[in-house]
Amino acid sequence: MACGGVILSNSLSFYQKRIVMSSRVQEKNGGASIPHVLSVAGSDSGAGAGIQADLKTCAARGVYCSTVITAVTAQNTVGVQSVHAVPEDFVAQQLKSVLSDMQVDVVKSGMLPSVGVVKVLLQSLAEFSVRALVVDPVMVSTSGDVLAGPSILSTFREELLPMADIVTPNIKEASALLGGIRLETVADMRTAAELLHALGPRNVLVKGGDLPGSLDAVDIFFNGEHFYELRSSRIKTHNTHGTGCTLASCIAAELAKGSPMLTAVRVAKRYVETALEYSKDILIGNGIQGPFDHLLRLKSGSHSFHRKDAFNPSDLFLYAVTDSGMNKKWGRSMVDAVAEAIQGGATIVQLREKDVETRDFLETAKSCLAVCRSHGVPLLINDRIDVALASDADGVHVGQSDMPATVARTLLGPEKIIGVSCKTVEQAQQAWIGGADYIGCGGVYSTNTKANNPTIGLDGLKTVCSASKLPVVAIGGINASNAGTVMGMGVPNLKGVAVVSALFDRENVLAETKKLHALLMEASSSSKMQ
Ligand SMILES: Cc1ncc(COP(=O)(O)OP(=O)(O)O)c(N)n1
Ligand SMILES: Cc1ncsc1CCOP(=O)(O)O
Ligand SMILES: [Mg+2]
Q: By CB atoms within 10 Å of each CB, which of 295, 323, 343, 396 scores lowest?
């Protein structure tokens, strides 16, 4: 592949391409480049899915989006009434117009209605290199209408997927791509992800939104080495038309901004979940599946531009609590430690700084917040409501002798996350009444990190979890040797573990976080199978 005098081989990884391409952009422009996604997809007249969803998603994520229209559909919230495929040579002309002129970072493909259109796209990608290709293998609309027939499957499998940096099928699409195999469980989704990966894409995300009988929406991400089970709460709403297009274009947008693949996927899932939650009651059209509001602005009575992401209990899965003493001992800054923990799989971060000056605490909070935000990971502040407010962190964690949850809620407002430490069922009940979002329960085991903290053991943890109306994270003396036991118990409401020394009183935060993440994944999936 050649473009602008730079040869970009398909065998280069996304990261290698990023380095080569960013130097090229600087050479060409001598200035800042604008993240740019090209959406190659069908038009949806109802504007919930397709090109329209991609444009709105990229706008919401601060990324420029150009468009190549492959088909024009007449559709609404009832279904697809008619499809008019754009002639292949005209698709080719659109691709040439965009790619020969503009610096596209990532191509996202959606509806590709014929083998000819797939081939035209692949030819264009051979002529004009881009950093990444995100393939949403659209086959059937959410209303059940066929958008790409079975004749295209072998071209997808043999020619398109090997070029993809990520492919994002739902269960039906994954099954169709794999010759109709039955996909009924999360274990089946893992198998499908592995089989699809063998067809050549660098990463696979099998979306489990249609999986029956699960409370959470579970997606399986596989990068050829590791599986990640990505959970988000299932939002009760009919306004889900266009979620697949939106997820894929948000992944493309985050990649265009420079995020690593897993981060892009996590951010995209959170974005879709936030938009669905925000839009769950809006009414557009008379059909059974409505569109949602990508820009979070249309709800009647709501005129605020910014709305924080809703709290997601699955964020408690691997909860990293900082300690500047430990990080100093190992010679690293707080920001570096937090960045490594997130890279290793931490799903939420709490700054717990007992002995720092307020001004330093605030500066650290702001720097860590920038890292957390860029990865879609919430940042909480321990004890200090003032620091949380001043830094605009995502919330606070308070104990039984800190600010009561009700007061914290009044000070912070409805959108911030509040966690409360509880050792007993009564405290858990109070936390719920006070408007907390989750409880931290422990110390489960003894620890040197917090002095004079009686342990409650696994039995105490089980008792509180079973009675709690809020999601729970376990804390206290948890490390690689016992995290599996804690998560493997499979008690109700227990969503994860919070750890300090097992991550930060170690030489290699990244490796320790990865190890703990893998152990938790294994324990939680085996407890679900019991
Ligand atoms: C997730 C989580 N759970 C419990 C605690 C302990 O909070 P607290 O009881 O207020 O004790 P300190 O951490 O402030 O010493 C926590 N920090 N995080
Ligand atoms: C803050 C806190 N609250 C209860 S135990 C504890 C300390 C947990 O630290 P570690 O994970 O190092 O045992
Ligand atoms: Mg406290």
A: 295
